[in-house]
Model the fold of this input.
Amino acid sequence: MTTKFVNRTPETQRAVIIDPDMAAPHAPSSPRQPQGVPAARRYDESRLDEAAGLAIALDLEIVAADTARVRKPNPATLFGSGKVEEIVTLCEEVEADLVIVNTTLTPIQQRNLEKAWERKVIDRTGLILEIFGRRARTREGKLQVELARLEYERSRLVRTWTHLERQRATGTTGGPGETQIELDRRMIADKIKLLKGELDEVRRTRSLHRSARKKVPYPIVALVGYTNAGKSTLFNHLTRAEVLAKDMLFATLDTTLRTLKLPGGRAAIISDTVGFISDLPHELVAAFRATLEEVLEADLILHVRDMSNPESDAQAQDVMQVLTHIHPDLDKSRLIEVWNKIDLLDEEARDILYSRAVLDRAMNKPIMVSAITGEGIEKLLSDIALKVDEAGTEIDVELAPQDGQLLAFLYTQGRVLDRFDDETGHIHLKVKLSDQALGRYEQMTGRA
Done:
C-alpha cells in the first residue's frame, strides 16, 4: 500500500497586471496629496493597487505590475506593437501564466493579445465577473452572476475554433448552413432566457417578502459604498452580527438583513449588500438591478466611504453614478455619507476632514466614524433615529399603569419625545410614529 498522497491543490497562477492609461497627457507630477484632501484624478499606483486587490481576491500571485501609456488605442490590440513586444518580454522574464489588462477589452483585442503573448488574457470585466462568481452564496446571487457572465460571453464568441464551418441541418439546428458560432449564440440566448425566468420567480418571492416587511412598522436602513469601504465591519458593529468582513475587494456579495436597535429602544432593519467599483461592468449592473433597486427603496441610505483612501472622492463619484443610473430621481434627502476609517488618519488629516464635514453643503452633514474602534457610532445611531422619524406624526398619549404592552410598543416602534408620570401612575407621552406604526397603534387602541 502506498504512503504517498496526491496533492490536488491547484497551482497558484502567476499574473502580470497591465494598467492602460488612456487619459490625456499628464501634467508635471505634483506631491501626493495628504489624507483627507480630495483627489482630482486617480493616481497610477491607486489603479494598480485596486487591480492587484481584484487579482488577490482570486488567489492569483502577482509577479509584475505596470502602467502602459496608450496615446492612440489600437483597435486590434489596444497597445502599440512596441508595447505588445515589451509585455511579451516581461511575461517571459517573470514566467507569468496570465496577463490581467485593467480595462475592458473588445473580443478581437483579447483574442489577438492572447495570440501575441501566448498566455491567457483577462480584462477588468472578466476579472470582476470571476470574483462575483466565487462569492455568490444565495440562489438569487448565483443566478444574477451567471446571467451577467452569459451576457459577457455572448459578445465574445469570436474564438479561433477550427470547427466553425457550416453544419449540416438537423432537427435541432436552425437549418442548412447554420454555423457553430451561430448555434452557440442561440444556445447562450436560450440559457439567458431561462435564467431570466428563474430570476423573475426569485424576485417575485423577494417582492412578497418586501411587502410583508412594509406591513411591519420598522424603518429600513441600507448600507451602500465602494467595495472595501468597511460596510460589513460597520454592519457588524451596529448589529453585533458576524457577516464576513475582510480587507478584501467584494468580501460581501449577497444582501444581508439584520435588526438594528436605535436610541430609545426603537428597532430598524439594516441591510448590507454588494460594494461598487469604478468601471463596474454594465452586465453586472443590469443583473443586480433588482437588488440595487430594493436598496434604493430604503427609508435611509448610508453611503459608507473609506476616508483613509486618497481616492475616496473619486470612489464616491463612482458610487453615485451607479445609484443615479438605476434611480435618476434619487431623493438625496434620504442619503447620509458616513466617513469611515478615521482611526487610520493622523491628527492633521482628521482636522482637515472635520473642516470638510462642517463646511459640507449636503442636505445631511457627513458623520465621521471608525467601525473598528466605535468612534462616532453613537452619533451615527442618533442621526439615524432622527432621520427615519422625520416623516412621522406626533401624537400625545395617556396610558394607565396597566398599559405596559402599549407602552412597550410605543418605545420600540416610535420615538418618545417627552414623558411625564403623574401622581396617579398614569403616563403622559409625546411620541412620533411612522404611518405604519400609527396604523398599528390605532388598531391596538380600537381607534382604527
